[in-house]
Specification:
The protein contains 13 helices and ten strands. The chain is α/β, with parallel strands linked by helices. The longest helix is centred in the N-terminal third of the chain and has 19 residues, at about 1-20.
């Protein structure tokens, strides 16, 4: 009888094992909120059904997507927000053939949604793109997606980096001050800074990323194949929760509450964030599905600009099976 009891108890413990296991810590990177929602994704109680049970997030902020390459390569990140340029760097330079795109984060140039502006002073000497010759330009990171838009447009107008203009790396929050102090002649900013009344008063849009590159898939979530295989169940749970959260944030019925969450995180007053989660914001696919055709075009642009020596088939580095499985749970 005692032996039978012990066997039953052992089986019960095995069956209950996953419920008592430590949740997986997913180390995930981000650059700016919004358009990225990573550090506030699950601030709304009840949206994430698996958080704290099968996984928890450990968000880390980076100045630009280019810095994320090193962190992923050295094992400091599990899920990385990659642009087309950082994906190319991982595949072609770091030879990280096991990188896999698992979901989308946000896109630029979709219909009449927000597209990144490249801004100059209204009272400054730059009236046309050609006027940037001999000028100093601020970029958030050489080789970033926004930087690619800049270089593509300027090259189209006969201007080459170092030969015709100088670039300096500046963090997004410092762009306005650099332009205001006339230390640079052009800045590029995401929506959270572009709608700053002080910046709008002093500057004007010279061109946009959509005009430079067309539609861009700005950021995709990626992980290494080994990490996916080892932690598949927890990652599916995470993506399921991310789907629910994204749909909650982009539902107009939740606009006020969603803006309040971002306001609390960024320390900006809610009235400065009324554009968030509207068509004045970056486009977020409700199904978190990446635009692989746009990614492929972005890759070719990098090749044309000389940032990468070769191109590759983006589809070889995609695993949307986790997203497909998660989507079946979200109605």
């Amino acid at each position: 009888m005692r032996r039978r009891f012990l066997c039953i108890a052992a089986l019960a413990l095995l069956a209950a094992g996953p419920a008592f296991a430590e949740p997986l810590t997913i180390r995930i990177g981000w650059v700016v909120v919004p358009p990225e929602l990573t550090p506030v994704l699950f601030q709304k109680p009840g949206v994430a059904r698996h958080y704290g049970t099968s996984y928890v997030l450990e968000p880390s902020r980076f100045q630009a997507s280019t810095r994320i390459v090193t962190a992923l390569a050295t094992g400091e990140l599990d899920v990385a927000p990659l642009t087309s340029s950082t994906l190319a760097s991982l595949v072609l330079n770091a030879h990280m053939d096991d990188i896999r795109i698992v979901a989308d984060e946000f896109q630029d140039g979709v219909d009449d949604y927000y597209t990144t502006p490249y801004m100059v002073r209204k009272d400054g000497p730059v009236k046309t793109i050609e006027d940037l010759k001999g000028r100093v330009i601020a970029t958030n990171g050489i080789g970033s997606s926004i930087d690619m838009g800049l270089r593509a447009m300027l090259k189209r107008h006969g201007l080459e980096d170092k030969r015709d203009y100088t670039t300096v790396e500046v963090q997004f929050p410092n762009m306005k001050a650099m332009l205001g102090d006339r230390k640079v002649d052009l800045v590029m900013v995401p929506a959270i800074f572009a709608y700053d009344p002080a910046l709008q008063e002093m500057s004007r849009v010279l061109f946009t990323q959509k005009e430079a590159l067309g539609k861009s898939d700005m950021v995709v979530w990626s992980a290494r194949a080994g990490f996916i295989q080892k932690n598949r169940a927890a990652l599916v749970d995470f993506i399921e929760d991310a789907l629910r959260a994204t749909r909650w944030y982009t539902d107009s019925a939740n606009h006020g509450e969603a803006v309040k969450i971002v306001s609390d995180f960024t320390k900006l007053p809610p009235e400065r964030l009324g554009w968030a989660f509207t068509r004045k914001d970056q486009y977020r696919d409700p199904g978190l599905r990446p635009d692989l055709a746009a990614l492929d075009r972005n890759m070719k642009t990098q090749h044309e600009l000389g940032f990468i020596k070769d191109t590759f088939d983006v589809k070889k580095y995609v695993d949307l099976s986790l997203l497909d499985e998660a989507a079946k749970r979200v109605k």
